[in-house]
Amino acid sequence: MDTVFEGQILFRQYLTAQNEVSTELPEWARSADWLTTCYRNMVLARTMDNKAIALQRTGQLGTYASLLGSEAIDVPVGLLMQKEDVLIPYYRNHAIQMLRGTPIEEILLYWGGDERGNASPGMGEDFPNAVPIATQAMHACGVASAFRIRGESRVALTLCGDGATSKGDFLEALNVAGAWQLPVVFVVNNNQWAISVPRNLQSGAPTLAQKAIGAGIRGEQVDGNDVIAMREALQLALDRARDGKGPTLIEAISYRLSDHTTADDATRYRDNDELKAAWELEPIKRLRTYLHSNGWWDETQETLWQEEVNCMVQSAVDAYLDTPPQPIESIFDHLYAELPESLREQRDWAMVKAMKGGSHHES
Amino acid sequence: MDTVFEGQILFRQYLTAQNEVSTELPEWARSADWLTTCYRNMVLARTMDNKAIALQRTGQLGTYASLLGSEAIDVPVGLLMQKEDVLIPYYRNHAIQMLRGTPIEEILLYWGGDERGNASPGMGEDFPNAVPIATQAMHACGVASAFRIRGESRVALTLCGDGATSKGDFLEALNVAGAWQLPVVFVVNNNQWAISVPRNLQSGAPTLAQKAIGAGIRGEQVDGNDVIAMREALQLALDRARDGKGPTLIEAISYRLSDHTTADDATRYRDNDELKAAWELEPIKRLRTYLHSNGWWDETQETLWQEEVNCMVQSAVDAYLDTPPQPIESIFDHLYAELPESLREQRDWAMVKAMKGGSHHES
Amino acid sequence: MSHETITMVEAVNLALAHEMEKDDSVVLLGEDVGTNGGVFRATVGLKERFGNRRVMDTPLAEALIGGLAVGMAAQGLKPVAEIQFMGFVFPAMEHVICHAARLRNRTRSRLSCPMVLRAPFGGGIHAPEHHSESTESLFAHIPGLRVVIPSSPARAYGLLLAAIRNPDPVIFLEPKRIYRASKQPVEDNGVALPLDTCFTLREGSDLTLISWGAMIKETLESAEELAEEGISCEVIDVATISPLDMDTILASVAKTGRCVIVHEASRNLGVGAEIAATIAEKGLLDLQAPPVRVTGYDTVMPYFRLENHFMPNTADIKDAVRQTLEFV
Amino acid sequence: MSHETITMVEAVNLALAHEMEKDDSVVLLGEDVGTNGGVFRATVGLKERFGNRRVMDTPLAEALIGGLAVGMAAQGLKPVAEIQFMGFVFPAMEHVICHAARLRNRTRSRLSCPMVLRAPFGGGIHAPEHHSESTESLFAHIPGLRVVIPSSPARAYGLLLAAIRNPDPVIFLEPKRIYRASKQPVEDNGVALPLDTCFTLREGSDLTLISWGAMIKETLESAEELAEEGISCEVIDVATISPLDMDTILASVAKTGRCVIVHEASRNLGVGAEIAATIAEKGLLDLQAPPVRVTGYDTVMPYFRLENHFMPNTADIKDAVRQTLEFV
Lengths: 363, 363, 328, 328
Ligand SMILES: Cc1ncc(C[n+]2csc(CCOP(=O)(O)OP(=O)(O)O)c2C)c(N)n1
Ligand SMILES: Cc1ncc(C[n+]2csc(CCOP(=O)(O)OP(=O)(O)O)c2C)c(N)n1
Ligand SMILES: [Mg+2]
Ligand SMILES: [Mg+2]
Fold this sequence. Notes:
heterotetramer, A: alpha/beta, Rossmann fold, 6-stranded parallel β-sheet, two-stranded antiparallel sheet, 8 strands, globular, C: alpha/beta, 7-stranded mixed β-sheet, 5-stranded mixed β-sheet, binds thiamine diphosphate, binds magnesium ion
């Protein structure tokens, strides 16, 4: 029997949780610059995240999906994408949105149940959060197709979770990306859980990266707690896509250190020892240790930066809490470019009902 | 970088189009028994197919999907599946249906636009043809799940085309089959075309069998014009599934020698040279040559069998053409187990309208 | 025999447990229905009790959930599949519409599809986008399906038992806003409710209020408050949205001469359209006023900060009733 | 400027070619739309003319077709996506309902989704199962979409131009039974028709006939034959199914006092339900007889040997008209 296909998946890691260098470091990782920027933003991301959870717990935010444990995936994505690239995120990528220009108060606005949180001019052409799982993977292919049709050197980057890799949308998207050699990068944040469903129940495949093989595209597995590995993998994938060399699937191995969302209670289904073990691998401590050991970061800087970050987040929270709700007619005014005649009556009713004395008046 | 996964796809073939043995033959292929049975049924299948096309051309059948070029895939499937297994076919598997016990006249009835064509008691628990592409792959997993839940040693076997492998249903089905280690066999009839879309536009993957790798299941590529290879691959897959060793994906390489259906005209999009070349590889001639060269079949047998087969098919055609249409109330009577009260009025109208003098009377 | 005071979501759980105990062919599948017991706890304890062969956490894929259920049902199992929120049911539509609804008809009853597709639906719990829609109409339009919506713990119990036992596919939609809104004594007696009849929850003579699901709460409250004004409303819980029992509705409207239909879904082609159209067609001469619909707007369900504006409330219902009564 | 006598499917092709010529951002995608020119030849010649960057044969996956179109449209392209038959649209529903219909609203108009989803639909050509359904109602219920159905070559041309130019998603359903049923002179002048108004095809005083798509043929024939009996019917082609122009319909019913709605889709929650309900709600006092619906049954569309029983014909329409006129 002839072998008609052979494939393999490699695992990329430079810095272990024990602060050991497991693969020779790339040149750029031997200087402070990018890594401290990365670190600062990871701390900012986590601070924002903590604050959002606190807001939710006090009834000032809706159900919120924490990014805890994704910092080493999302911050490098946010730093490495070009402005003209397009982000097609899932619902856990607030750090990327922030780095690409969405003010924190607008991110909070979204999680506060207000569509204006998707309207920030800072978002440029980026997609809003995708709530229906994996649908964004196809939109990314549509965006990438538009780039190809117009002959633009831009990249569409999309993210999803490990659970999302089971959904047809993700798989159809990988397939068309391969068939059309689209300038798209798929990043799977394999945080080991899809709400209560563990990774091994999602798929019999030993790696999720090998789903790339089924679609005939490049795939690799990366330590998603190691920003050096993430930068290397992402830069390669982005460059290849931009240069017309086709799509890449990156499976970033991480761990969901939080509950699924604030509406979830992971202790119902998840072993506490597993969680503890995962905390040993977490990305911020790992990077901080590396920065410290190179003398690129110290306790004073840490304290100052944490203070600065607290201020930034607090003023964003204030701005968020000060934002008055949209007028009710907004639900009509963005439905179509122009209000259809047939909706005018409903819009009028809605406004009357919202007025003082109306059935839907909220004081 | 560590290698975390390695996989390969092998191509199985024993008998080439040049009547050469390319791999050592299995023991059973050194005797006439199974191979002549297989041959007879392939001739029967092709005869039935020709007749169906003729019926369509003369307005006595609806749009019909020819099986021409699939004989070496479908006849082995039909012979090797056990009666208690369940077939979940696509719309090109008439030969399997026939071999599993559906009278030819009932197969024709289906293509004549009559639901009774799916009702043959000969079909047992087999599914009817799936018209929406790839949906059957999931039903097969549902059937296989039922076997697993009840602890039965049965296998669900499902087929689809190369085009169908792009659809989420197929890919989600492969994935769950792997995750749950279901007793299911997926056979892809890669006949190189999905209506007008050639195989290379469907996917960037060099083989379709490697979609199994993405799902973490066994996959292999087989010469779908070589019944010996098909039997070997199928038997192994069926045995493994029955023994609880998990699912298999078989990519059978064939060629759609016909138009997509009788409603299609392949000359609009397909090169005639390609078609000619494909005829050189076709399965019936290949097997006949092998049988002849072993002295297991001769011209007299051929003539006699062809006559017999013609009679069988003709009497099925006669029976089909003699079948009166269903009464109109049949469209109500199988909608629910019991007719909902609210539909009684519509059913009554329909019957009145179908009566002599009614608006829908057909004489 | 237990006779507990329970919530609607507990009643769902009770019915599932009852039927799984009684009938081995009943199996559950869906996302997070196993160890987690469902994000609303509707299936809590069932995996522990009946094992993971019968309570299956599926990969994250709704088309798959629909397709698996069809395959299992064709094999004579009675799968009860959960879609985590109705807003995520769309990938399963092809299996529901093209297969579940048709398997019996397609095979002239050789095969059938006794499955239930459960999904929590509706707004009012301040949930994220896509977690609050009411699209029962999309299923109700499809011949071969049944669409059932309970509005109380007892009806959830009895109707879910009926849905599971029914030999055809049932879309069972659970108004999550009232999952825990109130408790009711529910006897775990295995008695199913009929799937072909509306429930008249309150008799009245001036006007017929027609509703279902979570809005039954506001509808009943409105009727109560209107009674204090001397207005006597009959309240009908449609419950079996499709096939629709128009006889009960028409008889009530023949008696009262006036009706107001209340639903949370968008107005255009909401189930209220069919009810109003049929009343006009078959009961025109009974009507002393136009059949009025009090519904969500023909807009996308707003994010939760504005969602209360979208949903009808008792003031809206009472206004519509008064206006209808004033019509001459 | 050509002014040819063409069929409806040729008019579709003409409109596509016109707009692709004029506007680089118009692109086509779908199964077999390229070299093959579509299974009905609606896109024939366009790949040769505009290249395979702008005319894309997709892999066989309808969810993908929907999802790609959303992504392209968000980028400012104007994708015209073909679903080969409406019976295969269901995998694309999630993208249509959750994304196309909402992208503008979700982003407060930062992004939008100017896509067209074309699909041939309806029965009467003796096609296999799933090739003959009429499920326009499922889309019409969804806020944020437009649903448009032409009934003649000229309206196909003008409405398709309007659909492509429209800044929001349009579901454009082509009644394939009349793809080649008749020819009409169509001037390739690039003039679009409005998307917010019904077309009154025939004036009349006794009764209003309301229909769309292929059934317009039978409806007009019925009106003609009834005219010979001295019955004067107004005929309205709804065409823009959603958002629905009820003003034109209500004005006509106010004039005639009677109406019959004709559609091929199943009755329960077919678009006729909304029309009848709104007539009852807003035009009750104008009605001299119940609004009657002549429709397909609430059954699965039968395989083709019985399909003619399912579809309304002129005898049915005329009976309904006479019956409505006899109502007192
Ligand atoms: C189509 C769809 N089905 C179900 C859900 C409900 N849901 C939200 S998140 C989630 C799990 C996602 O897990 P994963 O893809 O691993 O991402 P993670 O949240 O772990 O980052 C589910 C089932 C949804 N949003 N969309
Ligand atoms: C969901 C769906 N989309 C589209 C179609 C129309 N269609 C019927 S057959 C076909 C091509 C199938 O090609 P392939 O899977 O290779 O099978 P083959 O017919 O070549 O054996 C298409 C697009 C369909 N039946 N179902
Ligand atoms: Mg996850
Ligand atoms: Mg093929």
